[in-house]
Amino acid sequence: MQQNLHNHATNIVLYSLLNEVTSESLTRDLWSVLTESIVVFPDGIDVLPWMVPGTEEIGKETAKLLENTRLVVWAKHGVLSTGINYQDCFGLIETANKAAGFALELQRISGKPVRENDVLTEENVRDVCKALKVNGRYL
């Protein structure tokens, strides 16, 4: 039975407040700053633009996105993950939140968007995928 976990992952929420994020841009940014991200969430992260929390609408839109991914970010609010158990759900959120923390700190220190720094390139991420036999959704 699948489990779900929702929380207000601070770094992810802050990242969505500071950056206009899409599913692809957020996924690629987080993959580029933390190598393990591509292994933990190769299916990427889907992002819903801000919606009123707790509504039927956000529930329906989230359910659609969960058909293709295990982690949905509700921009400017929080995240919802799904997995085989709560530890799996928490690990997914923790990894994404850690990567978002790295991305935020990189932006703060450099004063530049993540991709304008010396982060993992798309080729680097592809190399990780090849070595670990992972298929990245946005590659």
Provide an overview of this structure.
The protein is of the alpha+beta class and 139 residues long. Helices cover 51% and strands 13% of the residues. It has helices spanning 10-18, 23-33, 36-40, 56-65, 86-110, 122-132, and strands at residues 3-7, 46-48, 71-74, 78-83. Strand 3 (71-74) and strand 4 form a beta hairpin. The model has no long low-confidence stretch (mean pLDDT 96).
The percent range for strand residues is: 5-15%
Unreliable sequence segments: none
H/E order of the elements? EHHHEHEEHH
| Number of helical stretches of at least 4 residues | 6
Q: What oligomeric state do these chains adopt?
A: single chain
The helix/strand class is alpha+beta
The coarse silhouette is globular
Give the distance, in angstroms, between the N- and C-terminal Cα atoms.
30 Å
Neighbour order of strands in the largest sheet: 1-4-3-2
What's the gyration radius in Å? 14 Å
Helix content: 40-55%
Average pLDDT over all residues? 96
Tell me about the biggest sheet? 4 strands, mixed
